[in-house]
What we know:
Largest sheet of chain B: 22 strands, antiparallel, barrel
Strand order of the largest sheet of chain A: 1-2
Number of helices of chain B: 6
Distance between the termini of chain A: 100 Å
Largest interface: A-B, 140 and 184 residues
Number of strands of chain A: 2
Structural class of chain B: mainly beta
Radius of gyration of chain B: 28 Å
Radius of gyration of chain A: 36 Å
Structural class of chain A: mainly alpha
Helix content of chain B: under 10%
Shape of chain A: elongated
Helix content of chain A: 25-40%
Oligomer: heterodimer
Largest sheet of chain A: 2 strands, antiparallel
Amino acid sequence: MKRALVLVVVAGCSVALGDAPPPVTDDWSPVIYPAQRLPLVFSHARHLARGTQCAACHPAATTSQSAVDNLLPTEAACRVCHPIERGEPERVVPNAPPAQCRACHAGWSPAAPVERLYLVPPPLKLSHAAHAQVPCTRCHGDLARVDLATRKQLPTMASCLSCHRDGDKPRRCGDCHLAKLGGLLETRFAHGTLVPHASGLGDAHRIGFARDHRQEALQQDATCEACHDRSECVACHQGVTKPVDFHPGNYVLAHAVDARRGKPDCSACHRAASFCVGCHERSGVGRRGITDYNTVDPERAFHPPGWASASGGRNLHARDARRNIASCASCHRDDECLDCHSAQPGSIRATVHPPNWRGSARCRALDRGNRRMCLRCHVTQDEVGCDWTAP
Amino acid sequence: MRRACIAAVVLAVSATSAEAYEFWLRAQTIGQAYQLRSYRLVGPDLFLGRRRYTQTLALRIWDVGDLAAARRRARLPERGLRISWQSYLRVDHDFGDYTSGRLLFGSVRRDALDVFPELAETTAALDLMYGYVELAGIADDRLTLRLGRTLRDDGWGTTAIDGGTLRGELPPPLAITVSGGLRVRASSPVGISAYELDGTSGAACREYVEGATPGTGTWQLIDRDRQIKNNRFRSDFEYCPQRDVRQPTVGIAVATSRLRHAGAELGYRRTWSRTVGLIGTPDRLQFTDRGLYPDEFGQAPATGVDEEYAYARAYADIRRAGTTIAPYANARLSLLHAALDRADAGVRLARGPHELEPSVEHFLPTFDGDSIFNAFSIEPTTDLRVGYRYSGAVTAIANAWLRRYTDAWAGGVDAGVERELARAWRGRVDALWDDGYGGRRIGGSGEASWRPQPALWLRGRAIVLGVAPDQDIRRRYITSSTVASATWRVADAVALHGIVEADLDEVHALQTRAIAVLDLAFAPEP
């Protein structure tokens, strides 16, 4: 029987006052601090009220450099005050602290083994020695009001960040959390998987996170790369297979509606002028390959009647092109537009520019930035540029 | 004597201090087999097989030179110089007719790849998605340098540059990031077109052929008299030299650093390219050739901007009395277009298991500066959106959106509920409705997942969707699809994934698809 377990506590404590204890929350991660079993009777409050210093029972707390160090007092430490005798489990010493086994081991019976503790060291990097100047209460709270200390007297990430706050010191997940091979954080433990949990870093993996994490990924000092290799991003965004629930099944038939709206933004993963065109052309939907689609025969046309008409009519394609020409670009190469929309000889010179285009800021910006685009249609001297003059 | 020399060499080598590098690998082998239709309005559709093989390899070499080993062993936070390598390589090839087949084009039988150069993406493609060496912790942890093929995602798409990125900590709470290099294009060494700016095609490229008098020339397909070689991995005929020139890119961003509850960033990025001049033999044309672009008046610029952006973003995360309020705003100004082409703003409100997110989004499609699509795209759209999430005994998501066009609208709602049905069983149902510009869709899906053994995951999903594109009421149809997938963890970190999809709809008969993945670094979802 190990009577040393009588005085089990989870970490150092102090009666030193000054800094306010961290706020009590229900934020203890079951992965970092798995459920404990502490079949003990103990009162920190009574010990502290008697003036016992934390270091009296936890002497290693000021020198420990690892979270796996056992800082619990041994039976020998208890014996300093408690006149424990293993051979006398019912021993009572007048004017001395309790020494009976059952004083601490509730329900102790000589006929049964002492119930064991179940206490797993947290998978963290923690140096008590580095925090030796910090009052114990800063991390462990005010134990003067606590009997048996549990994981609720261990610091949460929020309480850590109350000191390790915004500032000029680098702060990385790996400063406290264990890393595995390759420098990524170890996230899988026997007690569960470590996932961000709304701890003030704004990166909690909420519902639907796999589909919608743009805002989190854009945050400064985003912590994604602490756990995820960048290949995970690329494998999905530029990958050859997608999660089965991203696009609905048989998406070939349903994608046109999304593509015309540009919602979701297809360009986040696909390049219209290569990915979309290649597939459409090969599938006989484009203009260049072998296709039975026929713009003359309304029964065999891809687009509805009046889609693109040189002689007026609804000319619906202009509307679509103005709104989301990316959907046009998924079948048509830019040269095809120039059959009609060009100032070149032979073209019907159907302008795509809105009124007052030439004097507009956009015309000037495009011409100033890249006149090569303008030169695809406008060749003669009087047509070149918005405010171009010959050198 | 020889033995002594060998022994000496062995001793010399073994006496050298061991430089322990940490390797991390993730390899995936993906095989896909399915058919795509080549649509025929007259007669039966053709079926083009895809037999696609993909091999990926993600590699991390950590702490090269063991510079941080001592602190790591002491379980101290990493400080000081740390050198690492990260890369992701992919080989992708389609053995099927879809890419590697031939087709009758006119009266000539040609490789599909020659007719559709875009298919080269999946023909023996060797892509280095990224690969860079990182020097972190320089100058007392104030500088981080990345050299090689680095990625940059501004939230509206990913770019890659072959060059370098340097991040430096300014006086708190600011940091600066500068980057420079060549933008990755399809024509870059082990490049990939996915990183290339959209809008310019890889086919039917033209050159300006001068006329008898200035201004009377015409754009024509680039002279085909150049020597044609039978290349099995790319088109033999297409020649688009402007798409092969290098695109220098520079960027700079100033952002907040090490702030927990708020952040902001201001950035600028510019990509440009040289204008292609003369191609081929100068006198091969009837009149004096002045280059790829018309230049009779000196109107062809020496360079052109492909993209030029200034962007800003800000966010905050305020928590009070159990309520989280997280507003955010992102905006991008395309200086090339003198237009705000992307912007969104919203706020996340969370309390207990409830989360509500109203937002507004502005969108104007923009393209590579060389693309004439830039002149066509002039009507931005604005979306109003609201999302709701609930995470309790069940998890639920609901989204609604409304978009206004100048003379039309579009909108929709979708919702889903997921819960644990029994031990190792989970179920989920979703419903979708949208309408307006683009078309109408209504439908729903059901999904169940089961984990009968610790190393086996099974999942099934069925969806039924009615689709009515607004362009053409003749093509209304109902489509259904069932997907079954299984993951078997063969050993620690080794898994086999299998996916089978069967689609049935009014347009097509039954279509099937199978995907198998060998994953050599498997980690199950939490």
